[in-house]
């Protein structure tokens, strides 16, 4: 009986026991994370293996027709940029430099002061000339006063001699004195003018101590410093400067080329040219032939040709190397230039009975274009509609290439 009672107790439900714990949130989060990772791996696998691999292709650009140069080069020659107006500026007199007002690269105007020499000697010479002029004026004034008195005395004696109150000899002496003073007045006036001219010369000598720009231009060299002796004749030998600086008129720049005398017959005045500076090989400058110098260099068998540049630009400076292409004169067009573009023959294929080309976009996606072909141009095709100049087309497009497909260039795939 006790055993049966114990078994019945075990079958009872304990109402006071706590309910079982729910599943934890941490375990649920781990489960969700695993699911997300599996989905990401599935998407990556589809992107890598499910999508089609971009096709590797070769491309070429289209070229516009009707833009051919109107002139072709008949001769190429090398030369240098030169300035027709370039001067090393110096003082007219020998002297010590007091100040220099220029630096390399500075732009100056005509008449602008470039430097000054010490004016000690010139100032002294001018002061002496000024004193001599004042002395000459004083002498002229004194002689003129004496002449006034002598003329009055001659007039008085003239009336008295007519009345026989004075002797004829006294009157003749007064007239002679008057004429002498008249001559002295003329001499004094000439001396005064001479002194005035000497003062002007002294002013010019003082002005010669100031060095001015002969024309507008750019300073390319500064040759003297304060305290140095400059002389136009280089009287002091190696220790004397001959100039203050060098100025170039940038508006007078042109090109001098040496053409082999065997080909000089191809060059004519006013002939168009195309110049390319060695410093800027991608910059083509138009121009024309100014003149052919009528002499030859027997040592080099060349003839100099002057060429004018059609562009004024600060990048063009003297002594730059330049290559000049002499061009044929433009010929009148007898017919309208062809329109459209030139496409490599391998870039045009037939799809569904139509001639098409595949144009590569910026995102490496191709676009199929229907073309209107006018004919063959050697190995190329003349396309009048469907393509524009500068677009890139696929060469030898494979059969599986479709509109909107991704491609990769052959050189990029390597």
TrEMBL record:
The reply on keyword Membrane is yes
Q: Name one Pfam family in it.
A: RND-MFP_C
Q: Which domain of life is it from?
A: Bacteria
- Looking at the record, the residues that make up the CusB-like beta-barrel domain are 255-327
- Tell me where in or outside the cell this protein is found: Cell envelope
Q: Where are the transmembrane segments?
A: 28-49
- Which residue numbers delimit the Multidrug resistance protein MdtA-like C-terminal permuted SH3 domain? 343-396
The record, for NCBIfam families, names: RND_mfp (TIGR01730)
Record-stated family: Belongs to the membrane fusion protein (MFP) (TC 8.A.1) family.
| Listed name of the protein | Efflux transporter periplasmic adaptor subunit
């Amino acid at each position: 009986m006790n055993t049966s009672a114990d078994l019945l107790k075990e079958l009872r439900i304990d109402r006071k026991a706590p309910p079982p714990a729910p599943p934890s949130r941490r375990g649920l989060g781990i489960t969700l994370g695993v699911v997300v990772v599996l989905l990401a791996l599935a998407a990556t696998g589809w992107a890598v293996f499910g999508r089609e691999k971009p096709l590797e292709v070769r491309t070429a650009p289209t070229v516009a027709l009707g833009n051919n140069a109107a002139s072709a080069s008949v001769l190429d020659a090398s030369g240098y940029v030169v300035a027709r107006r370039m001067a090393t500026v110096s003082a007219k007199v020998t002297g010590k430099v007091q100040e220099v007002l220029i630096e390399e690269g500075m732009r100056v105007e005509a008449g602008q002061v470039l430097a000054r020499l010490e004016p000690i000697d010139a100032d002294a010479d001018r002061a002496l000339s000024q004193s001599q002029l004042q002395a000459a004026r004083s002498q002229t004034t004194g002689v003129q006063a004496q002449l006034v008195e002598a003329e009055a005395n001659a007039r008085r004696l003239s009336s008295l001699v007519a009345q026989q109150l004075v002797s004829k000899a006294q009157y003749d002496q007064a007239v002679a004195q008057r004429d002498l003073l008249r001559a002295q007045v003329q001499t004094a006036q000439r001396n005064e003018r001479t002194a005035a001219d000497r003062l002007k010369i002294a002013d010019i000598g003082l002005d010669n101590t100031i060095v001015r720009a002969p024309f507008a231009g750019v300073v390319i060299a500064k040759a003297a410093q304060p305290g140095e002796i400059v002389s136009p004749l280089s009287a002091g030998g190696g220790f004397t400067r001959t100039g203050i600086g060098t100025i170039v008129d940038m508006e007078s720049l042109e090109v001098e080329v040496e053409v082999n005398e065997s080909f000089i017959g191809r060059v004519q005045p006013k002939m168009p040219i195309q110049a390319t500076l060695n410093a800027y090989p991608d910059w083509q400058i138009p121009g024309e032939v100014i003149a052919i110098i009528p002499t030859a260099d027997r040592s080099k068998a060349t003839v100099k040709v002057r060429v004018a540049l059609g562009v004024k630009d600060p990048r063009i400076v003297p002594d730059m190397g330049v290559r000049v292409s002499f061009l044929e004169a433009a010929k009148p067009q007898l017919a309208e230039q062809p329109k459209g573009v030139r496409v490599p023959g391998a870039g045009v294929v037939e799809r569904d009975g139509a001639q098409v080309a595949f144009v590569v976009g910026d995102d490496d996606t191709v676009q199929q274009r229907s073309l209107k072909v006018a004919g063959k141009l050697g190995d190329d095709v003349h396309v009048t509609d469907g393509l524009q100049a500068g677009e890139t087309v696929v060469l030898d497009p494979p059969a599986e290439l479709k509109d909107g497909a991704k491609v990769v260039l052959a050189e990029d795939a390597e």
